[in-house]
Specification:
With 217 residues, this protein is an alpha/beta fold. The protein has one domain: Rossmann fold (3-Layer(aba) Sandwich). Helix 4 packs across helix 6. It is globular. Bound molecules: adenosine-5'-diphosphate and magnesium ion.
Amino acid sequence: MSAKIIAVVNQKGGAGKTTLTMLLAGSLADRGKRVLVADADAQNTAVHWSGMGGGFPAQVEDVSGEENKLHKALRKRAEEFDYIVIDSPPAASAPVTASALRAAHLALVPVIPSPLDLWASVRIREAIVLARNKNPELEARLVVNQMQPNTVLAREVLAMLPEFGIPMLAASLKSRTAYRQCAALGGSILSLGSRAALAVMEVDALRREVESLLRGR
Ligand SMILES: Nc1ncnc2c1ncn2[C@@H]1O[C@H](COP(=O)(O)OP(=O)(O)O)[C@@H](O)[C@H]1O
Ligand SMILES: [Mg+2]
């Protein structure tokens, strides 16, 4: 079976691309999947995370130099892995982002529920629509990140999301210190142990939803 490819994309810096990439890839790898994180952001945040010595369970490689040939480079690696998760730079029109979207079965767009973040994310929807010219099967989902439930603002912004034109994943990520600790320690969420039980459940739900979206692809 050839790898299922997930591109984590957003025009906006700080939306949670690297966090979502590493939590999802770490969770898949902790469940015994063969996972490659393809770090397509020249800032190499994912590479740094895995280099912190916390035993991150997936393989992480810098692929930012592949530019518009990333889809070809990943196709060659597809038999080695069950999943390839691409972390991308905050640039909707960058060649490497277009190439990531061309390779992907699923695009995940993390969004922080604030109007400013949503407005800044509109360009990525255009990039996804454009990518479907060459990759018509490309699925896309918004992933609400840093969710603050039960606030008026969160409700108002969540009500705006359906207009965005990309369906929302049912699972979301709350704002949690466990996710920052995970990056500081260089591990997966499971490696934080029982102190991160709620975070583990949240990431598990997200992983299961992504796995089921990609089943049969
Ligand atoms: N759900 C979350 N809970 C707590 N902190 C988060 C969460 N998501 C992201 N962060 C923090 O927000 C900052 C930006 O996230 P990051 O994943 O680096 O975004 P991007 O890759 O899109 O620039 C980082 O400091 C990260 O630790
Ligand atoms: Mg990043």
